[in-house]
Amino acid sequence: MPRAARSRSSGSVAAPDTVVETGSPADAAEKNRPLVEDIRLLGRILGDVIREQEGKAAYELVEKIRQLSVAYRLKQDATAGKALDRLLKNLSVDQTVSVIRAFSYFSHLANIAEDRHHVRRRDVHERQGHLQEGSLAMTFERLADADIRADDIARTLDHAHISPVLTAHPTEVQRKSILDAERAVAELIGERDGLHTARERSDNETMLTARVTQLWQTRMLRYTKLTVSDEIENALSYYRSTFLRQIPKMYREVENALPGRPIANFFRMGNWIGGDRDGNPFVTAETLQLALSRQSETALRHYLTEAHELGAELSMSLLLAPITPEMAALAARSPDQNAHREDEPYRRALIGVYARLAATLQALTGTEALRHAVAPQNPYASSDEFLADLKVIEASLKHHHAQALIAPRLAPLMRAVEVFGFHLATVDLRQSSDKHEEVVAELLRTARIEADYSALDEASRRELLMRVLNDARSLRVIGAEYSDHARSELAIFETARTMLARYGRHALRHYIISHTEDVSDLLEVLVLQKEVGLLRGTLDSGAARNDLIVVPLFETIGDLRNAAPIMQQFYALPGVADLVQRSGAEQDIMLGYSDSNKDGGFFTSNWELYAAELALVELFDALGSSHGITLRLFHGRGGTVGRGGGPSYQAILAQPPGTVNGQIRLTEQGEVIASKYAHPEIGLRNLETLVAATLEATLLHPTKSAPRSFLDAAAEISLASMSAYRALVYETPGFTDYFFSATPIREIAELNIGSRPASRKATRAIEDLRAIPWGFSWGQCRVALPGWCGFGSAVESYLANGKTDQQRAERLALLQKMCKDWPFFRTLLSNLDMVLAKTDLRIAARYLDLVEDKKLGKRIFAAIEAEWQRTNDALNLITGDTQRLATNPTLARSIEHRFPYLDPLNHLQVELMRRYRQRPADAKTAGDATLERLQRGIHISINGVAAGLRNTG
């Protein structure tokens, strides 16, 4: 592995919240000067567009609000704050919507400028030879310093599996039209550093003005509810813009660091969209077919484009360059008979390859290729066949002194085919355990095997299900009438079998069971696989195999505590371990961050996840020895810290010892998908970060557990934290009413931002509310309660449990040592620091106006405020920092300069919500123009605040 003497920098573009630039204020100002210039340019263009489109008065109103907000926020000018308050309260609905649009778009444009600056600073560091935290270069340097050989790293990658999984959740508020226009703005901003003449910069500014005008005249909101097909298309746009090209580049970086060694296909994309049925009645067998067909089409069209371009590049003549016999045979098989290409074997071969790809596209998706030199014919049976043809071309180029022509296009294409196949991404299937139970109960009842399966206790269920799995016969009765629900669920399994045959082994691999509470939940899914032939053979036959890994999802605090016992009992059943071994010897287990947080609070969620992972690793160490079964943890992380968010690099390194081992899947959700992957270069760095962190966690991570004193302290804090959290959220009278009044949860539920309902049931109970809109709502009103609540009281209690001043001092010293020496605790506090920095209780207090019971509102807000202060004080005490983000001045500056533009959005959101909620119910009729403008303004403000806070999903 090459090693170079390079300086190391902690700056990173791995995620929007991880950039750290140290140095004097003057140095920082100089480094940020291009960013300031970009923001000013985009702000000026936006202002010009507003003046042109809305008139001088509208522009001056926006500018006055901006000046007052900056004076109030940055200069602590109380007079400006009062003037701003009066001005915002007296705006008409139309003025309010115009102002909200202006500040929302400013947030979007500022994000683009910041993303560009991340890339710019990365380029500066690389030119200076600085290595950055989270980069592959830094990781390979660290591995070399630790005397870990390149062969050992390559062997680790041979068995590794790293997979980010894109999910559709009701927090992605951006329309694809907006995303596309913003990508165009990002490209134009990215070009400016390379422009040298006044004419070039003027032309660039003209194009920027055109794109900002497009944004201003493009509807920011959807008029209709987002459909599953819309969500599929949104996700596919990231493959076209980033993944299809950047993932091969990431592999090339690994290959360059490990020269001469074959690099396995350890990194693959996953996708829930079209297969996640939990709580979404709109996901069906048809949407699963659509998702896989559109994924296949996206991959194949990329290959068609690359094959066409490759044919243009490989113009070599037989008169000047010989070819291998295999290459000659490939060219001879081509249907291309054009005399002009008679001596150009590579072109003739690639025209034949293109024709086969076009026929494959037609066969798999029913769509047509855009161009045809010859008619589509002889479709490929698999992506392996296509890859074999490309390898023939590669070998011929290598053997005849044309190796330089491989790297630009052929090598990335070959890697893309290896990674994406004809399926693009592995689609996960997911459904709630109770839905499986209903289907199994109906099958057993109709077959007259068990009249009331749901009434059985767990032991009886297991016994019955094992009998079914040891019986070669199907449960379904020919000619019997089954419910719509049973037919719909079985259709998913049947379609999965068809899709696997059509698109290949990697198209579908995982079946996730939400709300896994016992072993029978796993057995039920094996029974349903058996019903359609996805499980073949009986458990007691010694030959059974199943196609879909049964993946339990442990979500609540109680579920996490039961995770290891459930899996132990599952594998103790006769035939189960052998089945898994024969079916690939892989066991994925998904851990839910969102629901565990909503159930037990920020700290307890993190701690119980940590403890569950340790217990699972211990169990699977034994199963690995006896059956060679590999454990892979799947982290259901969201964007907000309250949902497991925060920088991925630190999160992976903070995993317990022995839990990564080259195996990790994690969800990418909400606004975070756009912030990480909309920009190709930032997308590449984020992909690189996942690999870097996985390698470090696997090869450099200490194998010993944290000291017992650390674990005991965390357990004690966890108990106190959960108690304080639940006392506030679940046991405080009126808290539910406060939440539904003082946050925009009601309005979020109405917003067309996801295909799934915001609540699992038609109630106002927090228990039934989905964790995602729960966290999203708290973020909107700037409280972000799921990201910190309970920690302050817990630390206060932990220190108070010291009987003497000496004991209390020792306990504090222990917490400080945990922060310094334990990655889990340090990362948790770092995320806590970030979320507290993004909260603003002065703004949150404005939402009290929306609570009808003023006494209730003041009482509960006072409790929230007191807990926030305790948490802030506890963090200061442990870290020694009295300012938030003291160790991340770049993010601190970003937030400081963002808030003045977010504040008006929150003020106006409150005002519009107040007006909207005050309208009589019978006045809220379709076609009410004022009502529609109020709703539009509220929803645009939600979009703007989400964009300004970034990690909100």
Q: What are the main properties of this structure?
A:
two-stranded parallel sheet; disordered N terminus; 36 helices; eight-stranded parallel beta barrel
Structural overview:
The strands form 3 sheets. The chain has an 8-stranded parallel barrel with strand order 3-4-5-6-9-10-11-12, surrounded by 8 helices. It has a two-stranded parallel sheet with strand order 1-2. Strands 7-8 form a two-stranded antiparallel ribbon. Helix 4 (93-127) runs antiparallel to helix 35 (889-918). A hairpin with an 8-residue loop joins strand 7 (535-536) and strand 8. With 953 residues, the chain is mainly α. Helix content is 62%, strand content 6%.
Instruction: Show unreliable segments.
Output: 1-22
Q: What integer value in Å does the Rg equal?
A: 29 Å
Count of β-strands: 12
Strand order of the largest sheet: 3-4-5-6-9-10-11-12
Proportion of helical residues: 55-70%
Overall mean pLDDT: 91
Q: Give the percentage of residues in beta strands.
A: 5-15%
Shape: globular
Summing up helix and strand content along with how strands pair, one would put the structural category as mainly alpha
The main sheet comes to: 8 strands, parallel, barrel
Distance between the termini: 39 Å
**So how many helices?**
36
